[in-house]
Amino acid sequence: MKSQDIRKAYLNFFESKGHLIVSSAPIVLKDDPTLMFNNSGMAQFKEYFLGNGTPKSPRIADTQKCLRVSGKHNDLEDVGFDTYHHTMFEMLGNWSFGDYFKKEALAWAWEFLTEVLKLDKDRLYVSVFEGNPAENVPFDQEAFDIWKQYVSEDRIILGNKKDNFWEMGDQGPCGPCSEIHIDLRTDAERAAVSGRDLVNADHPQVVEIWNNVFMEFNRKADGSLEKLPAQHVDTGMGFERLCMAMQNVTSNYDTDVFTPLIAKVIAITGLKYTSNEVKNISEEQNKTNIAIRVIVDHVRAVAFAIADGQLPSNTGAGYVIRRILRRAIRYGFTFLGTKEPFINKLVEVLANQMGEFFPEIKSQQQLVTNVIREEEASFLRTLEQGLQLLDKVVAETSGKEVSGEKVFELYDTFGFPKDLTALILKEKGYSFNETEFETELQKQKARSRAASEVTTDDWKVLIDGNVETFVGYDQTENNVKIT
Ligand code: ATP
Ligand code: MG
Ligand code: MG
Ligand code: MG
C-alpha cells in the first residue's frame, strides 16, 4: 500500500466513525508563548481540552505536521542515526471532545490496524498505565480489561508514568495512555527473544506506532485528582512508522515517503544508499547513509516551515530552521562532498509527492526552493572561507600539531565544527591540540552565559521569560564519529 493510500485509509476510517476531518494546523505556531512548533496533533485543540471554546465537532481526525526539535520533545539528536525518529513527521490523530472514551478508541484503533490494514496481530503489543499510588494515580484497569478482549494477556505491558501517563502541567487535565507497539523483526529473531521484552527499549524494529491518551482527571493544586466532568480522547500515530510496517520494510527511510528524495540525492551525488536490509556495510557507506538520511529528513522540516511562513533568520523559530538547514548542508559537505547548493533541488520532489495532500508545499514551491538555495550558497561560502583559513593555519604551523586556539577560532567565527577540522587536518597529516580547544570552549561558554540575556546566538530562545533550550545540535556534533 502506498503512503498516500495509508493516509487516506486512516482518514476514511475515522470519517466512517463519525469524525470530522480537518486540515493540519501550520507547523509553526505564531501565537503560542509556550511552544514554537507544533509537536503533536493535539496542540491545535488545546483550548478545547481546557474548556475554552467548543470544537466544530465532538469527533475530529486529521494528520498533523509535527516538528520535534526543541523543548520537551527534541529528537534531533537521533535523526539520521536511527531509522524511526524524524524532525518533521506526520501524526495521524483522532479526538473525542467529551464524546466517546476508552472502549471505542481502543476498539477502533485495533480494528483499523488489524482489519482495515491487516497488520499481523502477532506482531502487536499494547501497554497500559501501571498506576502510581504515591501520586494518587490508579492502575488503568479499564484499558486493561478492554485490551483483554482483543489480545492475550502476555501482549499487554504495564507501563510507567514516563511512557503511559500524560499531563499538561503540574495542574490541570491529565490521564493514562495506552500505546500500541509493533515488532518488525524476522521470525527467527522473534522466536529467540520475545518482543515483549523489547517494547520501549529503543529497539529499532520494535517501535511505538500509536499513543492513545485518555484525559480522565484534573490534578488540583494540592496534588489530588478528581474526575473531569467531560472526558476526552487524544490519539497520535506516527505516519511514517505506520508506512514502514505496511510496506514490509524495517526503516522509515525505506518507505515511499523517503525513497523518492533519496533517489534524487543519489542522482545528484552519484553516491549509493543502502537500504536497512543490507547488512555489514562499510564504515564509509554507513556515514554516507547517515548523511543522506539527515538531508532527506531535514529538507522536509525546512521546506514545510518555509511554506508555512517561517523563513530562516537569526532569531526565534527562524533561527531553529536556519540551524536545521545548516546541519543538512554540513552533512552534505562533509560526508557527500557536495560543494554546490543541491538540497533545494529536493523541494520539487517533495512538492510532487506531498502536494496533493498539502497544497501549501506546491503553491510555495518556488519560494521554498529559492530560499533554500540562497541559504545553501551563503553557508557553503562560509564553509569554503573556513577551509581557506585552515590552509593558512596549517601553512603557519611548524610541526604537525595545529594550535587548539586556531581551531576554536574557526569553530567560533565560521561555525566550523571541530570534528570537521580534525578530519581535514588528518587528511593533511596534522592533528590539533584538544586541550587548548577545550579551554577556549569553556572560556566562551562562560562568556555566553554572562551574555545570555541579550544574545540569541545559541539554541536558547527566550520566549516570555521561558528559556527553550535547543540542545540537539551540539550533542549531535559530538556523536558524529569521523575517523
Ligand atoms: P518515541 O517513544 O518513539 O520517541 P513518543 O512516545 O515520544 O515516541 P508520542 O509523543 O506518544 O511519541 O507521539 C505519538 C506517536 O508519534 C508515536 O507513537 C510515534 O509513532 C510518533 N512519533 C513520535 N515522535 C516521532 C518522531 N520524532 N518521528 C516520527 N514519529 C514520531
Ligand atoms: Mg519520543
Ligand atoms: Mg514513547
Ligand atoms: Mg508515546
Description:
With 483 residues, the chain is of the alpha+beta class. It has two domains: 3-246, Bira Bifunctional Protein, Domain 2 (BirA Bifunctional Protein, domain 2); 258-479, no CATH class. It contains 17 helices and 15 strands. Helix 3 (102-116) packs parallel to helix 4 (141-148), helix 9 (283-307) packs antiparallel against helix 10 (316-336) and helix 13 runs antiparallel to helix 14 (404-414). The longest helix is centred in the C-terminal third of the chain and has 31 residues, at 365-395. The structure holds adenosine-5'-triphosphate and magnesium ion (3 copies).
Structural class: alpha+beta
- The counted number of beta strands is 15
Provide the low-confidence segments as ranges: 452-483
CATH topology of the largest domain: BirA Bifunctional Protein, domain 2
Write the layout of secondary structure elements.
Blueprint (H helix, E strand, L loop, with lengths): L2 H14 L3 E2 L24 H4 L9 E9 L1 E2 L2 E2 L13 E10 L4 H15 L7 E6 L11 H8 L7 E4 L1 H4 E3 L4 E12 L3 H6 L13 E14 L5 E14 H8 L12 H11 L13 H25 L8 H21 L9 H9 L4 H5 L1 H31 L5 E2 L1 H11 L3 H10 L3 E2 L1 H17 L9 E4 L2 E4 L2 H8 L4
Parallel strand pairs: 1-2, 6-7, 12-13
Antiparallel strand pairs: 2-5, 3-4, 5-11, 6-9, 8-9, 9-10, 10-11, 14-15
The structure holds adenosine-5'-triphosphate and magnesium ion (3 copies).
